[in-house]
Design brief:
Layout: H1 5-16, E1 19-22, H2 23-31, H3 35-61, E2 66-69, H4 78-87, E3 91-94, H5 97-104, H6 118-136, E4 139-142, H7 148-169
Helix pairs in contact: 1-7, 2-3, 3-4, 5-6
Cofactor: Mg(2+)
GO molecular function: kinase activity
Pathway: Metabolic intermediate biosynthesis; chorismate biosynthesis; chorismate from D-erythrose 4-phosphate and phosphoenolpyruvate: step 5/7
Length: about 170
Amino acid sequence: MGAGKTTIGRLISQSLGKDFYDLDKVIEDNAGADIPWIFEREGEDGFRKRETQALASIAQSDTGDSVLATGGGIVMREENREILRDNALVVYLYASIAQQLYRTSKSTHRPLLQTGDPKATLKKLFEVRDPLYRDVATLIIETDARHPRSVANKVLDAIKRHLKEETTVS
């Protein structure tokens, strides 16, 4: 949360000339409602079910010609991690808790942070999610104190190196 997935994903898709999907936007479009409303009406479990359905649908129909920005909690379900592992080159945009807090402090569109102590919430989420992201990630890129364009360039360079290594080894 607050790592820059949407902004950086959009920059990467533009650089690669690929379609861009923001999974949260896909979920909102499919539901005809925004994420806070879905959380309020269906709870986190209802949202996670919708998230898995949207991810599976994109994975099924995608031919590798797109960039997908997922929500921060996508890794919470094993089914999602399997879909990501099997169908994508996964880039984990790592952001420290301090950076996440800074980047999300003014947002009212993040239901999980509408608590009395967003920092404690982010810390708890990080402790659970970080190992799951590391498990599924093909590449890990640190985003702290970096401009989105700089991070996008770093991701593009890492992808190129990874693909070059992959074709050299194969």
